[in-house]
Specification:
Length: 478
């Protein structure tokens, strides 16, 4: 008694029309998808020839399970055509707002009626799919009357969906959701506000290859980051009004240790798109690492206002900056508010423990550390080690940072803190050995260079400490 429907959410361009994958364009290579249904009262082996859409699936399923008069929904109940009866003609609508929301390119909207298809953006394309299924011949100039009819039909469909005009709202996604999307290969960050059909924007059909280049560059890690940053810098020069390109350049510059470039790129992203929630948290973190605490606090307070209600990472980012600025009481209030909503969140537990350590409340911190132990991130343990160093407790610092080194033995920051702890604990030679290992890895973050400088100075290596301070300054300015 079960009805099963199998479908896909999109196809793949695979290079057709200049698009490597999907998302930007609305040609048939990405719009045509399987739709297979099976179940009671469904004839086996029947192929439905008329064009249908995924918008038809829900009313069809409701009809098949007994809703003779489904509630008013977009789409059609396909029960009749499945049974062999004619299907009433209805135009099929499609859209890609990806370019508009991410890159400030024009929206693309499409309409198929019978065998004719309109694709409208900054320019119009008209195709006869019966004779040109590859959509290689634009008939817009040769079929002006049909073009006007199709455009009128498209405007009517959009008015019905959005009677007061189609406008974009900033998407509030948590950093965890953003990371989950990136793990699935979705490297864009949703943003953009205002009218979706804003005139004068570049046509994405002329820019799809740019998105493919951005996507590839954003995946770079390790030795490939420098070349990817050069590629993204070239893209920004080609498409200076593209906020996603500036955001991607900021992330790549950060990975390459070019803090000044990253800060300028994040700032430009927000000039182009102030409502982009995915930008302010990493920008605020970067500003904190650069020692620009007042600016970091301002960005993170705005980020908290823009954040999704269930976002815990953004308020924790604000707490970190408040902590660094010496505003320990407010930082603790922010962390406590997060723990009230997410009592078992390891980064929140670790942040609470660090605040307690700073206040000399070690016995209270121990309970939070025990609860955070299984899921705390590497940086949480290293930052805790630094808190113990500031308290003059090098043995506790080394114990904390060992958690990070067990998982990542070549982590420069962890090696720097561990080496510093050994030096302060009277074990200069093994401490220097760890500091030399960190130096050999050539850290990319200024605060790691500054930690090395402080550790080397404590070991009496003033020349090496001075070189580390110069490296930190160079990273801040690069």
């Amino acid at each position: 008694d079960t009805v099963v429907a199998v479908m896909a959410d999109h196809g793949e361009s695979l290079g057709e029309h200049g698009e490597a994958t999907h998302a930007v364009l609305i040609y048939e290579s990405t719009l045509r998808v399987p739709l297979i249904m099976a179940g009671p009262r469904l004839p086996a082996g029947r192929v439905v020839e008329p064009r249908v859409g995924l918008v038809d699936v829900l009313p069809t399923l409701l009809g098949l399970v007994g809703f003779e008069d489904p509630p008013r929904l977009p789409g059609r109940d396909l029960g009749g055509v499945i049974a062999g009866r004619p299907l009433p003609d209805q135009a099929l609508y499609s859209e890609s707002l990806f370019g508009r929301l991410n890159c400030r390119w024009a929206s693309l909207r499409g309409l198929v009626r019978g065998d004719w298809k309109l694709v409208e953006g900054a320019e119009q394309e008209l195709f006869d799919l019966s004779r040109d299924p590859a959509e290689s011949e634009n008939l817009a100039a040769r079929e002006p009357r049909r073009l006007q009819q199709m455009r009128a039909g498209l405007r009517a469909v959009v008015r019905e969906m959005a009677p007061e005009g189609d406008t974009a709202q900033a998407r509030r996604a948590t950093p965890e959701q953003e990371e989950r999307l990136r793990s699935l290969g979705y490297v864009g960050g949703g943003g953009g506000t205002g009218a979706l059909d804003e005139p004068g924007l570049p046509d994405p059909r002329r820019r799809a290859h740019v998105y493919d280049r951005m996507q590839q560059a954003m995946l770079a890690q390790g030795p490939g980051v420098e070349a990817a940053l050069a590629e993204m810098t070239a893209i920004v020069a080609e498409d200076p009004g593209n906020p996603f390109a500036h955001m991607a350049r900021a992330h790549l510059a950060y990975r390459d240790g070019r803090m000044g470039t990253a800060a300028r790129a994040f700032a430009r992203t927000l000039e182009l798109d102030p409502e982009r929630p995915a930008v302010r948290l990493p920008y605020g973190r970067l500003l904190r690492e650069m020692g620009r605490l007042e600016e970091s606090e301002r960005q993170l307070r705005i980020a908290v206002e823009q954040a999704a209600p269930d976002d815990v990472r953004t308020p924790l980012g604000l707490a970190e900056t408040l902590h660094a600025a010496g505003k320990l009481q407010e930082a603790e209030r922010v962390v406590d508010a997060v723990l009230a909503r997410a009592a078992s969140d390891p980064p929140a537990l670790a942040a609470k423990a660090r605040l307690l350590v700073e206040q000399g409340r070690d016995s209270e911190a121990a309970g939070y550390l025990q609860r955070a132990r299984a899921g705390a991130e590497l940086d949480d343990w290293i930052a805790l080690g630094e808190a113990y160093l500031r308290r003059g407790l090098p043995d506790r610092a080394r114990e904390s940072v060992e958690h990070a080194l067990a998982e990542s033995p070549r982590h420069p920051w962890a090696l720097a803190v561990a080496g510093h702890a050994l030096v302060l604990g009277g074990r200069r030679e093994p401490g220097l050995a760890l500091l030399q290992r960190a130096l050999a890895l050539h850290p990319r973050r200024p605060h790691v260079w500054l930690r090395l400088a402080e550790a080397l100075a404590a070991a009496g290596e003033q020349g090496a400490a001075a070189r580390c301070r110069r490296e930190a300054q160079a990273a801040l300015q690069a």
